[in-house]
Amino acid sequence: MTDHVRIENTAGILTLTLARPDKKNALTDVMYGKLADTIESAEFDPSARVLLIRGEGDMFTAGNDVGEFAAVATGKSEGSRNVIRFIQSLARCTRPLVAAVQGRAVGVGTTMLLHCDLVVLADNAQLSTPFVSLALVPEAASSLLMPMRIGHARAYEMFALGETVPAKTALEWGLANRVVPLDKLDAEATALATRLAKQPAGALTATKRLMRNGDALVAQMTAEGEQFAKRLRTAEAREAFMAFAERRAPDFTKVA
Ligand code: COA
Fold this sequence. Notes:
Blueprint: E1 5-10, E2 13-18, H1 29-42, E3 50-55, H2 66-73, H3 82-92, E4 97-101, E5 104-106, H4 108-111, E6 118-122, E7 126-128, H5 142-150, H6 152-161, E8 165-166, H7 167-172, E9 178-180, H8 185-198, H9 201-211, H10 214-232, H11 235-245
The structure holds coenzyme A.
The site of coenzyme A has 15 residues, from helix 2 and strand 5.
């Protein structure tokens, strides 16, 4: 069985490629597990000087696998434990994290970018965090990081109304470092990662530690996780996931 995540190390750049393009790189428990293992072990691997996250196909990622959410909502599964390891590994990662994003980045596809140090968007990138539309709450410390980054008003609209933010706007709001034509995306992200890989690793690590407080981020993730786990088991959430499976709009007005 493939785990749908490809790992390559070239010239100090450890590339993590989401490789489930037929499902728009929707993230499963197995994929989170491989991502978490890779990010955690990179901390002890001097040859991994920079981490680069990218997605195969026309989209960065459609976010968490909705089928796996639905299994929890209907009591058929206890849920993913690896997702917690994955988001915590992002919060604690001391290596520079670079992301290359094309097409849609939904849910955790966008919230993981808040943990990346350099974000390159293709001109067709679209960021969205439709947690409330799925009867859920923001995760990956995004309830803290998103308002800090773009201001409360914009963050609330992204979370509560699921507004999609196009690449150019994301750049203006400080969610990204560059917007490039789609066919230049990989080259630009690799060029930036290569520059970082040549910088002194100790100074990069110390700078990142000064700029990001891993403990505070993990504490926020824990608070979010409690709400998320509760919301996942509500009638609202069951309606959201059933609607996705049935390819229809959810009707929350009928849910008590
Ligand atoms: N989980 C599981 N499967 C997903 C998925 C997800 N998050 N997103 C897409 N897929 C699957 C679709 O079910 C479809 O599978 P099928 O070919 O077996 O029917 C396949 O990927 C292609 O998706 P499709 O919806 O046909 O592509 P699209 O280009 O029309 O739309 C999206 C892309 C991302 C807009 C749409 O798939 C979508 O809204 N996905 C859900 C996003 C989401 O809510 N994520 C959770 C965030 S917390």
